[in-house]
Amino acid sequence: MTRARMGSALAVTVLLLPFGGYGLARAGLVPDGTPIALGLLSLIAGGVLLPALCEERAPFRHSSSHLIARTLTGERSVDLNRITTVRLLTTFSYGSAYRTLLVRDADGVALGITTERSRRKLRRAIEKADANAARGAAGPRVSRAARAHLGLAPGRGLVGHTVLALLVLTVSASLYVVVVLRLGGR
To answer: Which end of the chain has fewer CB atoms within 10 angstroms, the N or the C?
Structure first.
């Protein structure tokens, strides 16, 4: 199992802790409110940990065809000549939207692009791939929101993406809290 998959498995395990607490509470091994406490802590930890697993951190290096950066799960190197998908992930904190471009190459390596320098390299790689695709080569799948964030398409896709991301985050966090409260008997 790769470090990235292990990191993701850890984050998902953290989010599932309230269900384990529920089982222990039903067995009488811990107090009844344990799933609620575990759920609220898990929501905070999972909300911070999941988006940050693949984001680039300093120090990072660039070559003519690779982006190499440290992440929470170790160093990752994405081959810009073999990009398969580019998506935009949007998270929110303190009234601001934070955007990460999730790039995956043909080897399955994923890297979250957050710096301007890396965005410029990615933009040039996508423009080059689009030019090759016009000649018949298969190009990467780049979401409309990612293209808008990179300045390769009109910004209309970015507004819809942001609203949808906020809606999904709000609904999923609310449902998680409701389930945890139900597990805790409230």
So the answer is: N
Tokens of 115: 């710096």
CA–CA distance, 19 with 39 (Å, rounded to integer): 9
Q: What is the 3-state secondary structure (H, E, C) of 27-95?
A: CCCCCCCHHHHHHHHHHHHHHHHHHHCCECEEEEEECCCEEEEEECCEEEEEEHHHEEEEEEEEEEECC
Question: Over the stretch 130-152, which tens digit does the pLDDT of each residue have?
Answer: 888 777 777 789 999 999 999 88
Separation CA 105–CA 157 (nearest Å)? 23
pLDDT band at 87 (very low <50, low <70, confident <90, very high): very high
Element (H, E) at 153: none
